[in-house]
Amino acid sequence: MLVALAGLATSHPYADARSLGRHADLVVWEPDPADEHPRATVADSLTGLLATRPDGVVLTVPGPQVPEALAAVLGTDAPCFVNKPAAATRAQLDAVDRLVTPVADRVMSTSVLRFAPRFTSAKADLAEVLAVRATVRHDVGLWATGYNPWQDTPGEGGGTLVTMGLHGVELLVALLGPDVRLVGAAGSIRAYEGLRSEDTGVLAMRWANGIPGTVEVLGASEGESYEVVLHRRDGSESILIEGGATPARDLGYEGVIEAFLAMIAGAPSPVPWSQTRAILDVLVSAREASTPALDQTPVGGGR
After folding, report:
1. What stretches pass through the bilayer (predicted)?
2. Which among 152, 198, 169, 187 has a CA at the least distance from the CA of 10?
3. Domain termination residue (choose one: 112, 145, 163)
4. Does pTM top 0.85 for this prediction?
5. Domain annotation covers residue 187
6. Is the pLDDT of residue 122 over 50?
7. How far lies 203's CA from each of 22, 141, 198, 281, in Å?
8. pLDDT, tens only, 225-266
């Protein structure tokens, strides 16, 4: 089996390569200079990468490049895993949606947390749910040093609200379904001066059945964790996802690769495009609604 890594724009494809390397030979293309590559054959272009006729493609290029690169991948018969987020602006989302809709079974794009064992094994009872909340704790301080500036730029990678907010929106849509809309969003800089976007944010949503939900995005955090809380009249139920002794398994990295390998074997994407499209629409709407610099008064003098 041959799997292609089209782009190394974030840290995710390196984790993907470690999991995939146990099952397949790898070939990689990365348009920008990089100090590190997975142990893989290196192609000199996306065309050259796809000419190797891979059995599957993991696509991880900067957001503005996704539509063009995805179109090239979909010109082959290979299933594609698009590392999150597949779109961060309305134009990107419209372009990606036009490409994916006709071939939705062949494309998967998701937060790895959907495949975290603590989430997949949770027996969440949705009856009598009053409201839901997801809290995302993932530090973005590295962006303040200039690392991967496209991710922190709202009009390119979406910034913290999109890139980190996706994890919370993904989990809530996985539980409650895609019939959801954004009702409000806000972001601010509370700790890291120099960011192009925000380090703290909140999204408010409402499902068609009336359930309201919120996603808290804490990009100034000393630890990484993700929590979903379902509120009922008689109390609240919590699902907490953290990286333990085996973070690749605990956070869902291995699970998402197992799902992708099943797609290579002929299974359809386990993540319905209707859900992914709804998640991205909420995030893009939040980006459009939120001014990145609502409050640029860092606590404690900033970092």
Report:
1. none
2. 152
3. 112
4. yes
5. yes
6. yes
7. 38, 21, 13, 12
8. 999 999 999 999 999 999 989 999 999 999 999 999 999 999
